[in-house]
Design goal:
Number of helices of chain B: 14
Number of domains of chain B: 2
CATH superfamily of the largest domain in chain B: MetI-like
Number of strands of chain B: 0
Low-confidence stretches of chain B: 248-260, 298-303
Order of helices and strands of chain A: HHHEHEHHHHHHHHHHHH
Largest sheet of chain B: none
CATH superfamily of one domain in chain A: MetI-like
Distance between the termini of chain A: 31 Å
Structural class of chain B: mainly alpha
CATH class of one domain in chain A: Mainly Alpha
Shape of chain A: globular
Oligomer: heterodimer
Order of helices and strands of chain B: HHHHHHHHHHHHHH
């Protein structure tokens, strides 16, 4: 079936990328075409630009890794990398004895997981029910509406969320109208509500956009499968359970692995923008910790150490997720 | 699929189906309302008298219409400059990123290129490993990128992800075109500019859209690197400052017009600023949608 709005995007991208990265590791030693001197001469244009790109990439992506030595020093601006005092693992020891840091890890991890789980489930659910909307007109309108929030900045999203949840906001108003509450709920002062609010913010912003991936995967399912199932007397629910969901599995797994690498990254802007003194204990994330210590307190070494922790854990998570996926299913990222 | 649709139309609809469709319709309607209401509400508040809006109850239509919030926003000190910088960084940042990513993607897509796999791996690694906030900030300081406009453009020039997306698209193009050009004696530069790039318009448009939206929406780099330089402030950052002022109840936005009438509140001014910041995206959105849809459809269909 032709998908009139043709909503392929990151899903395909992710799938393609996953495949590409996989292929790369194998392809490299398969084909060794002989390069003649003449061909090399023709490649001059590419060689020069590659060199420029490698220098650029080295400076902006690899050089900062050298800054990791700060974590093992008592780095001071005055003394620089060369003359700062070496402290070994002291900074890491401080981190792991710091109750704030441990709390910050918990916050980052929990909010990251909640966001990942709920946005994934919601996107799949929404894709399936949207696919059941047979009229292309309304379907297109819904899609257009649902993609829009993805393009708004977190500043705007948190701003309107702030309004909606304020004491005169629509949420309190509705709750009062239906008699569910008597006094207004100060949403942003209750620690227990902070994580759900952050999750909701992600759902509001990204559900539509994430749906694109799954919708395109659903439209590429062989229609004959559904037809055969209908003849066998399968109902809507059975078709979803036995055809749609299994067909989505590869997409879901590749995306989950990719997103798990971002688990610890995904907790910054919203928490920074929505957090306040009253909910600090549940809102602060690793990045905010780095920001507070590294930038505001000028303890570059401690900030770097926390950053290293985050990078290393992210890579470990993605490798573990990949290994589990490889073992339990055929899908993997690399 | 087409067939099943027809068939199910011919058959008498089952009661379960009808109920499902009604529930589904209600769900979709609710989804759209939840998505659109907050945006439209902000729009209404931005055109409503500030003091009046504080009483609550302004929903989709302003109760006491005024454009005062907007005149206040445009009179704020940094808004004009922020708009100029936001537009500049979006235009220049997108242009630079597009050219750099496309050229790199082209090189990596060339099967004959001797360092192909090494170069590819070099950029794939950057997608997973990064130095972290502090080392990067020190680097930018040493490169004199802080307190400068170029911190918005240069570090964001190449992204491994965008480059790979473009490369995948290029690899899907028929090789015969390039071979024909090569037989005619075209060099790699000519092939990139005259053969490949014209065919890559959809994917270029898509990547450009992503980069542009990212540039327009980012504020953290302004806060981190250009906090001290009002010259390089951006709309998003100004809006962010307003937001934190409102939430911490300092409310200094209203101070900008003290002396005139006091019918504006921080909240109403911020609503207006939100609309101003959002407007370019919302207005361009219908046109952009075509690109992120068609561009990537072709990108996905290629196999």
């Amino acid at each position: 079936m032709k998908q009139p709005d043709g909503s392929h995007i990151p899903g395909n991208m992710a799938a393609i990328l996953g495949k590409d990265i996989r292929m790369d590791s194998k392809k490299s030693n398969v084909k060794k075409t002989r390069i003649t001197a003449k061909e090399l001469g023709r490649q001059k244009f590419m060689l020069i630009w590659s060199a420029i790109f490698v220098i650029y990439g080295f400076v902006f992506y690899y050089l900062p890794l050298g800054g990791w030595i700060m974590a093992f020093q008592n780095y001071k601006n005055k003394t620089g990398f060369l003359h700062s005092q070496w402290v070994g693992l002291d900074k890491f020891k401080f981190l792991f004895s710091d109750a704030t840091f441990l709390r910050v890890i918990r916050n980052t991890f929990c909010m990251g997981t909640m966001n990942l789980v709920f946005t994934t489930v919601m996107a799949i659910f929404f894709a399936i029910v949207l696919n059941e909307v047979r009229h292309s007109g309304p379907k297109k309108v819904i899609q257009t509406v649902s993609y829009l929030p993805h393009f708004l900045s977190w500043i705007i999203v948190t701003g309107i969320l702030n309004d909606a949840l304020s004491s005169t906001g629509i949420v309190n108003e509705l709750l009062k109208k239906f008699g569910l509450i008597k006094d207004t709920i100060p949403f942003f002062s209750i620690p227990a509500l902070f994580w759900p609010i952050v999750t909701f913010a992600h759902l509001w912003k990204e559900t539509g956009w994430n749906t694109i991936i799954y919708l395109s995967a659903i439209t590429s399912i062989d229609p004959n499968l559904y037809e055969a199932a209908s003849i066998d007397g399968a109902g809507r629910w059975q078709k979803i359970k036995h055809i749609t969901l299994p067909s989505l599995k590869p997409t879901i797994i590749v995306l989950l692995i990719m997103n798990m690498g971002n688990l610890l990254n995904a907790g910054f802007e919203v928490q920074y923008l929505l957090g306040n003194g009253l909910v600090k204990s549940v809102s602060d994330t690793i990045d905010i910790y780095v920001l507070t210590w590294g930038i505001s307190q000028n303890d570059y070494s401690l900030g770097t150490a926390a950053g290293i922790f985050k990078s290393v854990v992210s890579i470990v998570i993605i490798l573990i997720a990949n290994a589990i996926a490889k073992k339990t299913t055929d899908e993997r990222l690399f | 699929m087409e067939k099943t649709v027809i068939k199910s139309k011919l058959k008498k609809p089952k009661a379960g189906d009808v109920i499902f469709n009604i529930c589904n319709g209600i769900f979709m309607l609710l989804f759209c309302v939840v998505t659109l209401y907050p945006v439209l509400n902000t729009l209404a508040i931005s055109f409503n008298d500030g003091v009046d809006a504080m009483r609550g109850g302004v929903h989709l239509i302003p109760r006491l219409f005024t454009t005062q919030n907007y005149t206040t926003v445009f009179a704020l000190k940094n808004i004009g400059q922020g708009a100029i910088i936001s537009v500049s960084r979006t235009v220049l940042g997108t242009l630079f990123a597009l050219v750099a990513n496309a050229l790199l993607a082209f090189i990596v897509s060339q099967k004959k290129f001797i360092f192909r796999s090494q170069l590819s791996l070099f950029w794939v690694i950057t997608m997973y490993v990064n130095g972290g906030m502090i080392p990067i900030m020190i680097l930018y300081k040493n490169l004199h990128l802080t307190n400068s406009f170029w911190v918005y453009v240069i570090p964001a020039m190449i992204s491994g992800f965008n480059m790979l997306v473009m490369r995948t698209y290029m690899e899907g193009l028929p090789e015969s075109l390039q071979e024909a050009a090569q037989i005619d004696g075209a060099g790699y530069m000519t092939i990139f500019v005259k053969v490949i790039s014209p065919l890559c318009k959809p994917i270029y448009a898509t990547v450009a859209l992503f980069v542009a939206v990212g540039q327009w929406n980012s504020w953290f780099d302004t806060m981190l690197y250009n906090r001290m330089a009002d010259k390089y402030t951006t709309l998003q950052y100004e809006l962010m400052k307003m937001l934190s002022a409102v939430t911490s109840l300092k409310g200094n936005a209203g101070a900008a017009t003290s002396g005139t009438t006091v019918n504006i509140t921080p909240i109403s001014v911020r609503a207006a600023a939100t609309i101003v910041t959002m407007a370019p995206i919302v207005m361009l959105y219908p046109f952009l949608q075509r690109y992120f849809v068609t561009g990537l459809t072709i990108g996905g269909v290629k196999e």
